[in-house]
Amino acid sequence: MKLRSWSLLKNVPVWFEKHLSRQQLLILISAGVGLLSGLVAVLLKNLTYLIQSLLGGGYISNYHNAYYFIFPLIGLLLVYLFSKFILKKEIGQGISTTLYSISRRKGFMRKFQNYASLITAPITLGFGGSAGLEAPTVVSSAALSTSFSKVLNLTQASRTLLIGCAAAGAMSSIFQAPIAGIIFAIEIFSLDLTLASMIPLLVASVSSILTSYFFFGPDIILHTQLGEAFEISDVPFYMALGIFTAIASITFTKVYIYTFKRFKTFKSKFNKILVGGLILSGILFLVPQIYGEGYSTVNELLAGNHELISKNKFLQDWSSTWMVIVFLLLLVIFKMIATSVTIAAGGIGGIFAPVLFIGSMIGHCYGLVINALGITKLPVSVNQYTLVGMAGLMAGVMHAPLTAIFLIAEITSGYSLFVPLMITAAISYVITSQFQPNSVYTMELAERGDLVTHNKDQAVLTLMDIHQVIEDNFRILTIDMNLEQIINEGVIKSKRNIFPVVDENDIFKGIILLDNMRSIMFDKSMYQEMTVIDLMQNAPDVIELNECKMKDIMKKFQETGAWNLPVVKAGKYVGFISKSKLLTAYRQKLIEVTV
């Protein structure tokens, strides 16, 4: 009976291939991926809230608890123990892990990524780690989507599209913002904006948001009501806010990178956790408002509950507007540090929620300052600047201006803020990208040459594997050979017209071309007199296996005009790459990744 059931299961992909076109199959799978993304989002959120409730609730109800501030250290320790003794693998960090799977693993994610974030992210955030659930939701959903692609033997292009569907579904479910979810997948994962890709993304987004509605109804994470409509006289204020959020974006990124560099210097992971946990505990003791994702604090901010937000056990008198502004700016600084430390110390989470938290604080302070100084005739709507501040920081930190615009527009249930969102997000993105060409998600991948972008030529080169184009069927000559040995060991036994030369340690020294030997190869009187050194010449250029990326290799062929270039690893000969094979592999990869 079991064998029969397994046989029927194996025939499912065959049935799909016979009865459905490729596009129909992708649409069907994308609906399932959206459903899974919604369920993952629901599960992660509920597990996190369950842990928080077991520990006593959020920071407001927890304020009387004298021990709540040590929870982040316990959370980081639990994540470390799970990773080391149960999982026995490095979990990796969020969106970057998924992008790496696209560029270097042909869209396949590791099996443990199906469930690793489902366990570790709620522990990290439930115990007070300062991060977001969005990235873990995307990772788990994307990993599950690759399981579909394995069963159905889909192409690399289809696998990448399904990862995008998972990301769109995750964001749609969390924020109930389907358009923003689709744009997030396109911006972050560099998907092609075609009808063939848009329909599966749309289906996944709708499927996911319906799942969210089933469990949570119309309730959303951020609660707000828009104030007065946008006026043309407000344009300079929103432009200035774009500049401020750009400065904050650059600062956050620098703090994030610096923190990671510092924590990488720890040789012991336990010491890393101990230091990170103590820093988080200290910050949480001073400002419990940064506990977990921070959405509760943002909602209180949008509701205008300044007294509740600025409540502090050490400084009780934060009632004046300027004191509130100072306290909110302190929260911005502490949140930047806490988020960076949480992730650098080994916690599992993303930066999406912290970015919204920081952006809301900056925007809110900006609105309060305008009203406090009496710059305008009538008081401005501070809530509007709070929301636009979120978009500005998101555009700067994540290099996703369109996602920022549509997300805030959708969660406010209207588009009256559309123009301000466009102004602030565009300015923030343009300024930030001048100083930091890559986002926090992609910075490390870009440095390693593993980043797939919207540039199709660059994307194909990144996805190509250098090992697949290396040819090693060349006869190797040694530096001490004479002409007779060259002919007997090289020319007679080889079908190639180029010969690599190495020394006794296999260090590459140069090449010999068959054309350079034609005039003397039949003159036996030269057999003992002529040596490799006499015939050898330098290669037009050399490809270092551990350093050169496909883009560099293409450039070398273009600059030298050569048809074959030697490949070395730490100076030792590995093989050759021919221009013809490289171009053939490029064309094949272009076909594979085109949706």
Automatic annotation (TrEMBL):
Keywords: CBS domain, Chloride, Chloride channel, Ion channel, Ion transport, Membrane, Transmembrane, Transmembrane helix, Transport. Residues 536-593 form the CBS domain. One of its GO terms (cellular component) is chloride channel complex. One of its GO terms (molecular function) is chloride channel activity. It is found in: Membrane. The chain crosses the membrane at residues 25-46, 66-87, 114-133, 161-186, 193-216, 236-258, 270-291, 322-344, 351-373, 385-408, 415-432. Pfam families: CBS (PF00571), Voltage_CLC (PF00654). It is a multi-pass membrane protein. Coiled coil: none annotated. PROSITE patterns: CBS. PANTHER family: CHLORIDE CHANNEL PROTEIN CLC-E (PTHR43427). This is Chloride channel protein. It comes from Psychroflexus aurantiacus.
